[in-house]
Records
---
Amino acid sequence: MALINRNPDATNSELDAKQIVTNKELNPSQRSKLIEQYVELVVDNMDRKILEEFVTEQLQYNFRNDYTDVELREEINNFDEELYDELVDNVTSD
């Protein structure tokens, strides 16, 4: 971000008294690095409970929206070969 200093001979006009902020255009690599640095700061400021809640919500969202039934089964079975069938039994039994 580039800052242009205010007019040293400013009038009472609010616009003259403020600094003008211009944003630099970032290339894709710079934008990616910016995001990485910001995410690191956000994560560093989260406590364990907030991290757990965030990861839980994100995983649930991803599994609901990004996985087909076949992909979901494969994902769960990669965790444990018999887990999918066991979880299906849990949610289908009354």
---
Amino acid sequence: MESLKDWNGIADANSPEVPFLEGTRRAALRLILQPYLGSETSLYEWRSTAFLQKVLTNRSPKWLPASYKSYDDLLMDAADQSVAKMADLTKSQRIQDWPWRRFDPLEMKHPIGQDGLLKKLLSITGKPQSGTRYSVRAASEHHGPAMRFIANLADWDDSILLLPAGQSGQPGSSHYSDQFSYWYEGKEILAPFSDDAELKMRKHVLKLQP
């Protein structure tokens, strides 16, 4: 991919370089492990990045499949497979049609909100997002930060706390997903520590009685 030489290295939702590299990584891992694991390459997925980095750095002959003359040939094949898969998934040969958001949308699905009307009412899906499973912003289709917390040690009342959706797990509540836009867009919600500061910010009180 020609644009890689000018890529800024950011896993942006609009970047076509990210799905290309992700696809190449998966294809390279599969090609290296297939002689040993067959199609069950998921058995090594939990540490695939460290393993693949070590193999490609050391380029040990013992891990190079017999069908390839060099690791460069293997990587070229992996890149070709990545391109072919993106073209197949998007039904397009245009790089402009391969932004990362098409391959890794945010899918926060409620256990009973998988499809149909319940999905629309209970789940948050189809949201474009930046980041990958291995980037600083660790995020994938079904994986992401369950909380964002920044503590200001000089002023605890100026700390920030964000939840992916809201504080209420009750569908229909105004607090079911009222924090999502803040979490999704990276906006702040202050989380005061002291009683006085908390009292000033308090808007609602929930009382649980027997």
---
Amino acid sequence: MTKYPPITYTIYHNPGPATAVLRSLNSTSEMSTSPSLLPLTVLEPPPNTSPAVQSSTSASIEYPQIVLFGDSITQFSTLTLEAYLQTQYIRRADVVNRGFSGFTLPMGFRALQKFLPATTPASTWPKIKVVTVFFGANDACLPGEQQHVDLQEYIDTMKKVIDYPVFRQEDPARTAMIMITTPPVNEHQFERMPSDKFQRRAGITSQYARAARQLAKAKGIHLLDFWSIIMRKVGWTPSMGYECCCDHIPYEVESTSPSTSSFLHIPGCCHASAKFVDSDYELMDFLTDGLHLTKLGYDVLFQELVKLIKHDIPDCAPGNLPFVLPEWREALQQSELCS
């Protein structure tokens, strides 16, 4: 029988005095890039009043959306990232999971055109406040593998997603897009294929994360550099370089990387130590199988995502979005909600 880990947080459906206590806990559990800090998943219930409650006099009410768009790492987040966000945005926005296990970015873009077609009238497009785009883990398979996507095709397809009409409406309907880089992979957790090779290599995956990082900067898109966040927690620093000296396709080196003659083995490479340096963490603390995230990995992703939204997109922060329908005391005064 499968054993599930205990839930380590409390959700208060009727926020009261506990709210202040949870705020205090949240203030002491801010995420840090320091590998010595173990993140805590403490979910603060939203206040039971809103800064600006939507009018309920219209015939229908539309909930804005937070759309999580990605591959299996997104699809498998229903008990972690998705649930955490739903708790934070309850009554303010619907959190929609559009994760597709095994999909590459080109496959995801084709799916996007089906579940969110831009050919329908713009008046019917949903009001999407934030969309996260989280692909690359499958695209970065070794050439010859079914899921491999050439790096340039990955970049070109990401541009199509960024420029997708549904996400590029005029303010205030325009969607805030957050590009999330693929997490690192850990070859120490992989099983070798019959050919004695790995399906994914740490050095190649780093190049897809780098491409997303550079494209987000060029296109002015919000970036959550999840690859670098996790790598820093296991002792890596940018001065060590983004590449690896293994026999993989030699992509272009970043300006901050060492010269090609002095590559270092990055965390996750089978030639590097599983415990990369003197760190409190190893990659396997964040990855279940060398690719997918553990609960700790999702904790880091959730906390960094909320921190980014609060800092860079404050209008979309959980506490700043209004309730779609008013708090119950005010609702009692509105006859159309009581009839």
